[in-house]
Inverse folding.
């Protein structure tokens, strides 16, 4: 995924993978956008066919073509059910990068990916401004800042979904947990994702408490955004810069494992080697890092810590797309829940 490649080159890479699709249609049963719309171009088979046609110059990168490519959720469910395991999420990411190379990138989006996400202090300030706008009822301020715009094109809808912004971010509350100093050996390096830091700090703190209560020494390195938002919107340059910074930071930790409680972060950290196909040194460093990356539930399942006693508790579990489809992990979370004393695990229908 070289920055120097033009849109045509990126499209050719996408076409090569899309051409592996045999159009069997098994993806129809699992594709979220197809299940909602019933439109053939909104399923992996149809999207891959469109990318292949564009790569063969049978069609152009029209607005309709772009809309179809950008509406894919990159969940990976299609690849799980695909006999040749066509990596449709990668095809769509490359196709989006081709659009950015040929059609340009919105200035606001470029600012978020290349100025805000790499600079946590700037990002903190902007989210706090968004919080002020949200609490004062000035929704227009939130929409103008478009801080939550990375999660979808419809900023107003994204703002509606984000009902509140916490008083304090997760990184501002790390003193509530007994962590190990970064310069000391540790068992786990906790990667603080944007969602946990800015939207769900209580979840992040709970994860840290579970890990430390299990007897693990945990450090919280000064990482930045994993880079998935930039990658998902086709900004490969920004994704690579964020990845390089994280590799440098995480290489400096003396922890056995690197973990996150955000499956999107964990899976994208594991995908770093794919970003550096044209940079052997960085690819090698990313591969070494990948060998240390685990989802938090994988660590808990492996060490089998003493379980808390519960009574009359019925629990279930919903598989995150990136954990189940991108990392192929389904058993570890269930094993952790099934081992809860006094709890009854029930599968979702």
């Amino acid at each position: 995924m070289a920055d120097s490649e033009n849109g045509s080159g990126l499209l050719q890479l996408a076409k090569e993978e899309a051409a592996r699709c045999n159009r069997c249609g098994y993806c129809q049963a699992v594709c979220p956008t197809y299940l909602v719309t019933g439109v053939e171009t909104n399923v992996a088979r149809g999207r891959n066919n469109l990318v292949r046609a564009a790569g063969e110059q049978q069609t152009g990168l029209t607005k309709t073509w772009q809309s179809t490519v950008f509406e894919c959720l990159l969940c990976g469910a299609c690849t799980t059910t695909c006999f040749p395991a066509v990596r449709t999420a990668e095809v769509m990411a490359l196709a989006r990068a081709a659009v950015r190379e040929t059609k340009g990138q919105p200035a606001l989006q470029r600012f978020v990916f290349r100025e805000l996400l790499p600079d946590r202090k700037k990002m903190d300030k902007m989210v706090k401004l968004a919080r002020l706008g949200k609490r004062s009822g000035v929704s227009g301020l939130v929409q103008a800042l478009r801080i939550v715009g990375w999660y979808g094109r419809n900023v107003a809808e994204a703002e509606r979904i984000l009902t509140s912004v916490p008083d304090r971010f997760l990184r501002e509350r790390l003193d509530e947990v007994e962590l190990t100093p970064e310069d000391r050996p540790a068992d786990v390096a906790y990667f603080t994702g944007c969602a946990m830091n800015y939207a769900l700090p209580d979840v992040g703190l709970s994860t840290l408490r579970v890990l430390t209560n299990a007897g693990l020494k945990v450090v919280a390195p000064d990482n930045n955004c994993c880079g998935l938002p930039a990658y998902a919107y086709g900004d490969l340059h920004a994704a690579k810069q964020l990845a390089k910074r994280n590799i440098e930071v995480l290489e400096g930790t003396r922890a056995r494992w690197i973990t996150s409680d955000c499956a999107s972060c964990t899976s994208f950290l594991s995908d770093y080697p794919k970003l550096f196909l044209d940079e052997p040194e960085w690819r090698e460093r990313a591969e070494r890092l990948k060998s240390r990356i685990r989802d938090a539930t994988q660590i808990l399942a492996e060490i089998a810590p003493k379980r808390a006693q519960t009574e009359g508790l019925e629990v279930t579990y919903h598989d995150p797309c990136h954990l189940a489809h991108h990392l192929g992990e389904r058993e570890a979370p269930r094993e952790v829940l099934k081992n809860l004393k006094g709890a009854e695990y029930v599968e979702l229908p």
User: Anything to note?
Assistant: Confidence is low (pLDDT under 50) at residues 1-6, 140-145, 147-155. The chain has four domains: 7-103, 107-161, 170-301, 307-345. Strands lie at 186-190, 218-219, 255-260, 293-295, 309-315, 341-345. The radius of gyration is 21 Å.
